[in-house]
Amino acid sequence: MIFDADTHMSPYRNFDKSIDVVQWAELIDRAGVDKALCWLLPQGVEDVSESNRYLYENSKNYKKMLPFGWANIREGLDKAIYDTRRCIEEFGFSGVKLNGAQNAYNIDSPEAMKVAEQIAKLNGIIAFHIGVDEPEFTNPKRAANVAKAFPEMTILMVHMGGAGTPDCSDLVIEVAKENPNMVLIGSAIDARKVGNAIKALGPKRIMFGSDIPFADLGGCISSYRQMLSAFDEETKEDVFWRNAASIFKF
Fold first, then answer.
1. What is the pLDDT of residues 142-166, one digit of tens each?
2. Alpha-carbon dihedral 222, 244, 213, 62, rounded to 10 degrees
3. Paired strand residues for 212
4. End-to-end C-alpha distance for the chain, whole angstroms
5. What is the 3-state secondary structure of the chain?
6. Environment class of residue 60 by beta-carbon count within 10 Å: exposed (0-12), middle (13-18) or buried (19+)?
7. What is the torsional sign of CA 91, 96, 99, 103?
8. Distance (Å, whole) CA 10 – CA 53
9. How many CB atoms lie within 10 A of CB 126?
10. Model's pTM, two decimal places?
11. Cα distance between residue 174 and residue 211, in whole Å
């Protein structure tokens, strides 16, 4: 079984890599993925509400999709909290993503912490873009501030310090050692760095992710299989699907 913990789709055609739900499903099916976490494609999106609803409506018909919400504090704190509550309470999403890189803010800013507080109160999961494309906004130490403030809430560390080179995966691993509520999603980063994380943190805190449509899904799976050939079968299953099943209850 394969669970992809980082995929995107969009109701819009305002970006050269935009894919809709039909194209998303074709990519997922062609690669043999059984289930995938999916959030909006943020490029050019001024109001995340429509994209969140698009995910919700399409998840009814595409059973491989596990939709995940998005809140943008640049749209105003009240609206970000509204989108957060709507995603979890009305749509039944398991959590909400905050992307300080695309939306240009520090992920531990006072406003972001208010949104994190709402997610925690609703027993949701929070996901952060953690990449070197915007190293100040998304610094792993900022995510650690959130993790320490809400130790019972699962923190998804998307890209685990990749999304550019040189990556900061070593720092992410060090921060994750101090914060057991962090789970790393190894997308947009060399699979060998994911192997380092498995060795340092154990296999229970790492999930496979592709970052489609920004990456080739089949190529990502092949890279992971090559990297995981050095580990036992249980580790492979943990990374490819069992950790996700435990977190998202499927």
1. 999 999 999 999 999 999 999 999 9
2. 120
3. 7
4. 12
5. CCEEEEEEECCCCCCCCCCCHHHHHHHHHHHCCCEEEEEECCCCCCCHHHHHHHHHHHHCCCCCEEECEECCHHHCHHHHHHHHHHHHHHCCCCEEEECHHHHCCCCCCHHHHHHHHHHHHCCCEEEEEEECCCCCCCCHHHHHHHHHHCCCCCEEEEEEEECCCCCCHHHHHHHHHHCCCEEEEECCCCHHHHHHHHHHHCHHHEEECCCECCCCHHHHHHHHHHHHCCCCHHHHHHHHHHHHHHHHCC
6. exposed
7. positive
8. 11
9. 26
10. 0.98
11. 23
Confidence class of residue 14 from pLDDT cuts 50, 70 and 90? confident
Q: What's at 178, amino acid-wise? A: E
Q: 């799976």: which residue's tokens?
A: 221
Confidence label for 62 from pLDDT (cuts 50, 70 and 90):
very high
Query: 215-234 b/e with 16+ CB inside 10 Å = b?
Result: bebeebbebbeebbeeeeee
Q: Specify whether the CB–CB gap between 228 and 24 falls below 8 A.
A: no
> 213: cis peptide before it, omega within 30°?
yes
Token pair belonging to 199: 């060795």
Write down all domains in the chain, each with its CATH number in brackets: 3-248 (3.20.20.140)
